[in-house]
Amino acid sequence: MAADRPNEIIDWLIDEARLVDSPQLLRQLCERLVAAGLPLWRVGVFVATLHPDLFGRAFIWRVGQDVDVSEADFAATDTEEFRTSPLSVVLQTGKAVRHRISEAPQNILLDGLRAEGVTDYIALPLHFTDGSIHVSSWTTKRDSGFTEEEITTLTRVVPSLARVAEVRALQRTATTLLNTYVGTRTGERILAGQIRRGHTDLLHAAIWLSDLRGFTAISDRAPPIIVVDLLNRYFDCQVPAINAHGGEVLKFMGDGLLAIFPVADGGGDEATVCRNALAAAHEARNAVRELRYSLLGGPTEAVNFGLALHLGNVLYGNIGGSDRLDFTCIGPAVNLAARMEKLTAPLKRTIVASANFAQYAPNDWQDIGEFAVAGFARAQRVFGLRDEADVAASEVAT
User: Fold this and answer.
1) pLDDT in tens, 30-52
2) Residue 209: strand pairing partners
3) CATH of segment(s) 5-182
4) Strand 365-371 to strand 380-385: parallel, antiparallel, or no bridges (unpaired)?
5) Which residues contact 19 (CB under 8 A, 6 or more apart)?
6) Using an 8 Å Cβ cutoff, are 120 and 101 in contact?
7) 196-397 belongs to CATH 3.30.70.1230
8) Which of 111, 162, 320, 338 is the most buried (most CB within 10 A)?
9) Where along the chain do the CATH 3.30.450.40 domains lie?
């Protein structure tokens, strides 16, 4: 390899690679190294992630193939395959690991490489500036393996690769954390720079406000670990359904949940949005009906909740103190949904809706009357699902 080739590749990583997406970046890097004379066969980059469900992401390049991207959850770290792998050693020690495959110990990864005809394997740490350790792995099929010069080239290139990988990881982490804690649409707005206090938009949306019944009593009777587990399972009954039907969770308020299903700018799809929200409500109700919990070894008990659906305008944006903001929605429409949810228990209903919402699926709803609602001058007409009518009537009769 010419002496200046590693420098050219390092310069490319520093200057031009920032414009290439992650999978293509690894492919272009490997192709440049191969063109420079390195006999690479398979190259992997593993980056641990700050994510509630994922341990990390792996990017694998092979000669003549596109980069394969996969994700590993935290359960993977408990497997024998992981504990005995070179990946685990590098993550724990921050030191390079090399195996001549013909002399390598038994391991699923190394056995797989041996079956592919790999002769030499080296795993090099990617040191990020925050002190965290990630891994790159490099293999060849050449009979003699890597030369010392080639390993030196890789060790020179890896720090620059680490800088690029760290920038990408930080961007992905910021997006992941925002999506996790404030929702996808809200996260996109924050990353786009909508972070000034008072910066709000008028949004037309279907509003979802739900609440777990009897939560105060459960909290008083149950140990905290049971309460937290119940809340997590309870929200798992709702969040996937909301996300799957185009909604976005804005806030968890103890046992309450606020979500919106935005109507496209210019309107016109209110009916579709309301039908999607109603489909999510049916899925959530069915899931909650299957939910059970037990207090201190006692009998299993069912969970009940109330859900109000409304369609209206909300102010969506940054609200709060000068140095502590919340990206949420407010307005009379949100207040009405909250007040309507409080009617579900006395009306013996799980799901209720406003007239604005119910008009888009009249066959699913029945008018159950007008009710005084705190904070509103006029009584509000409330609709209940027809498939809950018989249950409500039987409970009232008893």
Assistant:
1) 999 999 999 999 999 999 887 77
2) 258, 308
3) 3.30.450.40
4) antiparallel
5) none
6) yes
7) yes
8) 162
9) 5-182
